Amino acid sequence: MNGYICEKSSLEYRKWKEMESKIISQHNFIFWFHLVISLIGPFAPFLVSWYLIIPVYAGIYVQFLFFNRCLMNEKHSLSDGTENTIFSYFFEMLGWHHNKARVTFFVRKLMYPILILITIIWQLLLDKSPLLF
């Protein structure tokens, strides 16, 4: 009996190590960079000058229009199915249940035009200065 428990735990340990190595290969520097800039992105209208952030938002939006995916995903092995975004992946990491199709639609079609509009209203119409630069 004791040998069986050791065999089983050894097998479970090997499976866990295999899973751990897959996670590490996905969570490389590009993944963390992508996640950090994606999570900071919605706050950028309040942090960064409009003449810097609007072209960035527009570039991201154009990327989604032409490629229908984020080009950074392949750099950190995030499979880019029709409904995979860094946000969906992050929500899954946190254990949050969400509708991937809605998140994808929001991120790829609505989020960046809304952020451009917020930037224009906040900085140009309300004449608020960005906090950083």
Helix-strand blueprint:
Elements: H1 2-26, H2 29-40, H3 44-47, H4 50-67, H5 86-94, H6 100-125
Task: Write structural notes for this entry.
This protein has 133 residues and is mainly α. It has one domain (31-125). 71% of the residues lie in helices and 0% in strands. The chain has six helices and no strands. α4 (50-67) packs antiparallel against α6.
| Range of strand content | under 5%
Which percent range fits the helix content?
Answer: over 70%
Q: Roughly what is the average pLDDT, rounded to an integer?
A: 81
Order of helices and strands: HHHHHH
Q: What's the alpha carbon Rg, rounded to whole Å?
A: 20 Å
**Shape by Cα distribution:** elongated
| Secondary structural class | mainly alpha
Tell how many strands the DSSP assignment holds: 0
> End-to-end distance, in Å?
66 Å
Largest sheet: none
How many domains make up the 3D coordinates?
A: 1
Give unreliable regions as ranges.
16-25
Per DSSP, the total helix count is 6
Q: For this entry, what is the oligomeric state of its chains?
A: single chain
